[in-house]
Specification:
Length: 187
């Protein structure tokens, strides 16, 4: 299937999930992440969930990161430029939901993309080669392209991978891992 077909299919799959499923699966994903050898790193970029899109609840991962005393980075979207500006999450960080339903920091201590060690990536679908499909605006592809070459890219999904995505472009950046409630896929 192509990206547009998969976006439609996976939005329907997520819409069919109950809130209790989302919570249970999100906890299971957070527990699976503990099995990865990523915890010696310092700077972890995480997305704050868009509840209306039935995304994975990243608050459980956030609790793990804070419990391990890691530096947590969150993004603010610039829709005119299609870019993400990244800020250190502190006790003083004010988070506000933007007009698209995305929780974002209002401002704070900016962190250079090259400093980030691990990125937890939202997605709609992915395939067995680590290709991912997001919402189609390219924010994460541009962001990941500006990170250091060693950054660890971890997709989070409620679902197993597709066999393949037909229309991958040269600008699409693939994942190193994708973590689901039941499995860790390595690419």
């Amino acid at each position: 299937m192509n990206k547009n077909e998969l976006r439609i299919e996976y939005k329907k799959k997520r819409d069919a999930l109950l809130q209790s499923d989302i919570e249970d699966y999100s906890i299971a994903i957070a527990n699976q992440l503990l099995r990865l050898k990523i915890w010696e790193k310092n700077y972890y970029h995480i997305f704050l969930s868009i509840a209306s899109q039935k995304e994975i609840d990243t608050s459980f991962i956030l609790s793990i990161l804070q419990g391990k005393d890691k530096e947590v980075i969150i993004s603010k979207s610039n829709f005119k430029e299609g870019t993400l500006t990244n800020f250190l999450l502190t006790d003083n960080t004010a988070v506000k939901v933007n007009k698209y339903g995305i929780p974002e920091p209002e401002d704070g201590i900016e962190v250079p993309n090259k400093k980030i060690d691990v990125v937890f990536i939202p997605l709609l679908a992915y395939d067995k080669k680590g290709n991912r499909i997001g919402y189609g605006k390219g924010f994460y592809d541009r962001f990941l392209a500006s990170c250091n070459n060693e950054v660890i890219k971890i997709g989070l999904s409620f679902f197993p991978p597709e066999e393949s995505i037909e229309d991958i472009s040269q600008h699409d950046i693939s994942l190193d891992y994708c973590v689901t409630p039941n499995d860790i896929y390595s690419f």
